[in-house]
Amino acid sequence: MFESLRNRRLYIQEVAPRDGLQMEAVFVPTEAKIALVDALSRTGLAKIEVTSFTSPRAIPALADASEVMKGIARAPGVEYAALVPNAKGAERALSCGVDELNVVMSASDSHNRANLRMDRERSLEHFDDIVGLARGAAAVNASLSTAFGCPFEGLYEPAQVLPWVDRIAALGIERLSLCDTTGMADPARVRALCMAVRERHPGMVLTAHFHDTRGMGLANVLAALACGIDRFDAALGGLGGCPFAPGASGNVCTEDMVHMLQQMGLDTGVDLPALLACARSLPGLVGHDTPGQVVKAGPSSRLHPLPGHPA
Ligand code: COA
Ligand code: ZN
Hints:
This protein is an alpha/beta fold. The protein has helices at 16-20, 30-41, 65-71, 87-95, 109-116, 120-134, 158-170, 187-200, 217-226, 254-263, 272-286, 294-297; strands at 11-14, 47-52, 79-84, 100-106, 139-145, 149-150, 154-155, 175-180, 205-210, 231-234. It has one domain (3-297): Aldolase class I (TIM Barrel, Alpha-Beta Barrel), CATH 3.20.20. It is 39% helix and 16% strand. Strands 1-2-3-4-5-8-9-10 form an eight-stranded parallel barrel, surrounded by eight helices. Strands 6-7 form a two-stranded antiparallel ribbon. α2 (30-41) packs antiparallel against α11 and α10 runs antiparallel to α11 (272-286). Zinc ion binds next to loops.
């Protein structure tokens, strides 16, 4: 089924330092955040979302965004992104030299208001300002949150979401992440939206961003892959979640996703043992166990001695 993807490089985009740490109760010290990003930079990931330049009152866990962004050692070939909700955030991020501004709005009006304290029209005005600020300095990616459904309004059909994709495209934004913020998507819904967006905006560079809230994360990755999507957000250890969406939980786990894709013979560009070493450092940073599976079970290539035989 995935033979045609065998000679294509997939883009694995790590979001734990942003989507993951924004949700944590503990404030991970700035130096530890920098060390985590630096270790991730050495694993072959295509992109790392380093932090978000949001109101420190809204997201206290990432109040040190500028220090982190300025403190990391940039590895050649890795793109360094930051989430920004408004022009003020974009100015702060650009002053730290980010490669990509990840602007965010929700397909759902309720979630946009809960998360960003503004309506969707106001978010689009910010996008327009940000595109102007970024010109020549950074790329712009738009993350469309709750693209498959929202905890306040329920599931969405593509027809409810496509007008917002059109509005984003009309601003000249060529990169788009379809974000399943609270794990509402299923593989059929993923296929319907991905195909509809691809058909309408064939030039758009699409990323699939799934949360594993209801155990459908990796199934949704495969559904997106089958639509030809080759960029995937995921979070180390399966951290992640939106503090302004009830019931939100972790992203698809990066090391589990990379393990699956590599098992399928696909090229992720990622050094799995190096990624697993990063994942093993997480409980020490966040103070709890993480949902990742492969870090506990080991890769499926790991063999165990037969019981009763010396190791
Ligand atoms: N960076 C730093 N400070 C910011 C900021 C930014 N990007 N945007 C606004 N602020 C500050 C303002 O300067 C103001 O500070 P003051 O009270 O000291 O004067 C304060 O925040 C309130 O500004 P206002 O424009 O009224 O914002 P708000 O309170 O309506 O909040 C957002 C709007 C978008 C700034 C805020 O909701 C936010 O940052 N949300 C991010 C949510 C998020 O990241 N969710 C998870 C990822 S999807
Ligand atoms: Zn997310």
